[in-house]
Amino acid sequence: MTQGRPLRVAMIGYGFMGAAHSVGWRQAPRMFDLPVPVEMAVVVGRNGAAVTAAAQKWGWAESATDWREVIGRDDIDIVDIVTPGDSHAEIAVAALAAGKHVLCEKPLANTVAEAQEMADAAAQAATRGIRSMVGFTYRRVPAVTLLRDLIAEGMVGRVQQVRAAYRQDWLVDPAMPLAWRLQKEHAGSGALGDIGAHIIDMTQFVTGQTVDSVTGVLETIVAERPLQGEGSGLSGTAAEGFGQVTVDDAAIFTGRLSGGALASFEATRFATGRKNALTIEVSGDKGALLFDLEDLNSLQFYDRTAAEDRQGFTKILVTEASHPYVAAWWPAGHMLGYEHGFTHQAVDFVAAIADGTDPHPSFAEGLSVQQVLDAVERSNENDSAWVRVHVPAA
Ligand code: SOE
What domains are defined for the chain? Predict the structure, then answer.
């Protein structure tokens, strides 16, 4: 039974992720029994007319144009940051200082220094009961949560290799304009930070191991693009003139994991024909498990311990009430999609706030991903030499 004073949410930003988070906040109290009610109080953006329209469309009670004024309000409990990476640190640190619980989109920040500042602020705030979490939403796809559980149970045995890839193709067209995601000062890095961050986090999450050293290469395939005119983000249109792409279009890197496994990673916006193709395959001495985002209601399992003439990858349908999150939705066999992870994220964040526990992924885990991203960049700058991610304390 949901009772008590509602947690009132302010969302800062209203692009693609703003839409996805709005779906999450709207569905969470409707489909799950939350321990406290949640209210979509205010959405914040710089363009007053556009943010007012977003508020009406997505169901926020109010809109506002000044995030500082909003995080200073006594009637706001949660600040949800869905802006480009260049403003994450400033908003998150200010919100935590103002005593607000903070959910921040991935990657946590644009630099390790910013991520460190945020993780320090989050650790300090946690001592005052203030919670923070990073939006690595794919952890909350039921099949990915199950993948983590099955590996922890030993279903594949000792993890020896991981193959992770996140492939998109929205930059193959050279006429695609210079969106903020292609500008280092706004995005920090390109495919590496935007989608490579997901597969780094997913690898660390499902294996329970950290990426401890990397070697990598980054490539910018189309160096100049038309400036962006109308709109923003992935759906903006081109204007007159050209500008320089200052981030990577593709990143390929290798990592050694803390438990001894070897991992390969590919993050690219130039995989012609691949729209949003995330795969992760974990190979162990007893078997292998594969998750494919294009078939997100299932896992594939290979059992090496089965009789030789019965071996082969089989499909586990992750649509039973006994699977993570599924019971709150539809009867067995009825599928979930991209948006459901955002609802699960809101549910888990609210539950942690109500229970007084620290949610995951924490800002410290976001910092860990940031350190891997930074190490891949340093490797690329140094002829793909191996770079240690976690330098042991002296
Ligand atoms: C664009 O590449 C993007 O929207 C990412 O920013 C998201 O994190 C991913 O979920 C889908 O693709």
Answer: 7-137 (3.40.50.720), 141-358 (3.30.360.10)
